[in-house]
Amino acid sequence: MADTMRPEAAVLPGRQHGQRGPTRVRVSTFVRRHKLAPYLLLLPALIGIALVVLWPLVQMGIFSFQNYGLPQVTGALPTQWIGFANFTATFRDPVFWLSLRNSVLFAIVAVPLSLVVGTVVGLLLNRLGKKMSLFISTAALLAWATPPVSGAVLFFWMFSPDGGVVDWALARMPHWLVGSTNWATYNWATTGALPAYTLIALLVIWQAFPFIAVTVLAGLKTIPAELTEAARVDGAGAWRVFWRITVPLMKPIYLVLLLLSVIWDFNIFTQSYTIIGLANSNEYNLSLYIYDKAFTFPPTYGLGGALALIFAFILLVVTVGYVRSSVRQGALT
Length: 333
Description:
Elements: H1 7-33, H2 37-63, E1 66-67, H3 70-74, E2 80-81, H4 85-92, H5 94-127, H6 130-145, H7 148-158, H8 165-171, H9 175-178, H10 193-221, H11 225-233, H12 238-249, H13 251-266, H14 270-275, H15 286-295, H16 301-329
Antiparallel strand pairs: 1-2
Helix pairs in contact: 2-16, 5-10, 5-13, 5-15, 6-10, 7-10, 10-13, 13-16, 15-16
């Protein structure tokens, strides 16, 4: 039986193992040489992001060049390529420019106020003891964790002309302090764009400042106490210490907070839809305008895709421009 065994059969498994071994070694050597291991570990997450984000983005870009609506979704009518007609129709619509103006003005007001209020609260929390600071930070984060719909409904009730606590309090104040407006029946949501967006700004600031305050507090804890103590010994006051030491050391943190605030406040939809709705186009922001054009009957998904691309491009220009200027100033490296 031993004589009938073929030598080639005994050597074949070794040859196969020898053929697989050098390939595995070459692959591992290539991965180590080009430092590809982190990218391979990130590959499953990147594939998931591509399926969830990139592919819908590509579809939205395709729809923006088509006359794509409910008949095309149901198959009643074929898809029609119309080129840049959706974009030209958007730029010719005066409501789009009015919505863009409302969004820009709201962001110009809400973003700085959110940062200022959050910074002041963070500085105050830094002066408290550890337990009290933890307690107040946790309580403040409840406002940030409140769902936008719940916060919008809460503020709508507070500012309601039908028994709202804000109108009730303003109606009982002297006229020389609050003006001669009949506050008892004053409707903040329907009187005009300024009162409506004042209400929305208060809501957005109330929901945004806890996150900013806690982030600022975390940044203040990283500043060495010796720097501030040395500045006070040299005669610097609290304001000078803040501008000369705190702000320069916290520029990267403020950059992130500013970018997040711009994106969040420029893109508010839930609060504005709950308080303003779609009744008056003069009070639209870009989010309401996109929703109205894309999803109200009859829906026009092609026009909505074009508007979404324009919206994303505006935010991209703002973000890239600010990051470039911050890098030049040394805020980022």
